[in-house]
Design a protein that fits this description.
Strand content: 35-45%
Largest sheet: 7 strands, antiparallel
CATH topology of one domain: Protein Transport Mog1p, Chain A
CATH architecture of one domain: 3-Layer(aba) Sandwich
Number of strands: 12
Order of helices and strands: EEEEEEEHEEEEHEH
Length: 204
């Protein structure tokens, strides 16, 4: 990935069958370099959201939705989960997030070729918004340097916003979770289009 001088316009598709019936609402996606670190933005023609990563150690990667904060990897996804974008009650939003997480666990088991994964879930509230912090351990014998995958997920506009950070061997788990929650606290939602090109120029 590179920090955008322009905009990446595309539809974010789910990796599993859970979201196959979601509406074809297109979102422009950008990770913008700023003086404080980086701003992650998603915008359609009628709604938008942003997240901020406050760090002097933010670096781009070759993947368009992955950045490094020091040595910690952050990956962002905004996945459709329902066939409309109407407002949902807090309980319904949690139900949709849990359904998304279960689909991701099922997908991980398929990819890792295991019957079970040791996973944990914890609901936390950040600035009055519910998030699901969830993790799963990599199976014994995995050849990567990753101990477990950690995620922070919430509902917005008929989609699940997910921030993923793999926990590497020797990494500080509390520090890793702290970065995820720090980013989650900056969530802002807008009922209007955001011009990412103008945002990029304004934040240079």
């Amino acid at each position: 990935m590179r920090f955008i001088p322009g905009v990446l316009a595309l539809m974010l598709y789910a990796t599993c069958s859970f979201a196959q019936n979601a509406p074809p609402e297109y979102f422009e996606t950008g990770i913008i370099k700023t003086k404080f670190g980086a701003r992650v933005a998603y915008t359609s023609r009628k709604r938008a959201l942003t997240l901020d990563v406050a760090s002097s150690e933010v670096k781009a990667t070759e993947h368009p939705y992955v950045i490094l904060v020091g040595t910690q990897v952050l990956q962002f996804a905004f996945t459709p989960v329902i066939n409309d974008t109407l407002s949902r009650t807090p309980d319904k939003q949690k139900e949709l997030v849990l359904g998304y997480v279960q689909s991701e666990i099922d997908y991980a088991k398929k990819i890792l070729k295991v019957d079970n994964l040791v996973s944990t879930t914890e609901w936390i509230t950040l600035n009055n918004k519910p998030y699901l912090f969830w993790t799963y351990y990599l199976p014994e014998g995995d050849q990567s340097n990753v101990v477990k995958q950690t995620y922070l997920c919430t509902y917005s506009y008929g989609r699940v916003l997910s921030i993923n950070s793999p926990l590497m061997k020797g990494a500080d788990e509390a520090q890793s979770k702290g970065l995820l929650t720090q980013v989650g606290k900056t969530f802002m939602q807008y009922n209007n289009y955001i011009d990412l090109e103008k945002m990029y120029k304004a934040m240079r």
